Amino acid sequence: MKTSLLLLFALLFLSLGLTQTQPIGPGRRQAERAQVQAEKDMPPPNAQRPHLDYAKARTEADELSKIAQTIPSDVDQIANGVFPKDVIEKLKQVEKLSKHLRSELNP
Fold it and tell me: Which of 7-21, 38-52, 91-105 has the highest mean pLDDT?
């Protein structure tokens, strides 16, 4: 009985000693409070996707397709020694439309 009581006190003393931590300095507490306040002040992230104008996207996709279909014949003309004057503009337009569509579909 005496040893079990002594053992109980020893375990209690050891458990209290292990749970004690180092004191936290005032600077650390102030930094933690500032961080919590900053997180409260931060607006929540915008989870909604921006509205996509499907009609406009479809129109641009159709225009892109129409222009892209003319490129192979222009390349054939270049192979025959004739350089179509609008081929560079068509390629620029294809690039512009595809970049815009990509940015609209993948914000």
Answer: 91-105
CA 71-53-63 angle, 5° bins: 15
What CA–CA distance (Å, rounded) separates 76 from 62?
Answer: 23
CB neighbours (10 Å) of residue 15? Answer: 9
Taking the CA atoms of 51, 55, 58 and 62 in sequence, report the sign of the dihedral they define.
negative
DSSP secondary structure of 2-34: HHHHHHHHHHHHHHHHHH--PPPPHHHHHHHHH
Distance CA 32, CA 27 (A): 9
pTM for the full model?
A: 0.52
pLDDT of 18 strictly over 60: no
Domain ranges for the chain, please list them: 54-105
Phi, psi of 106 (to 5 degrees): -130, 75
- Taking the C-alpha atoms of residue 91 and residue 84, their distance in angstroms, rounded to an integer, is 12
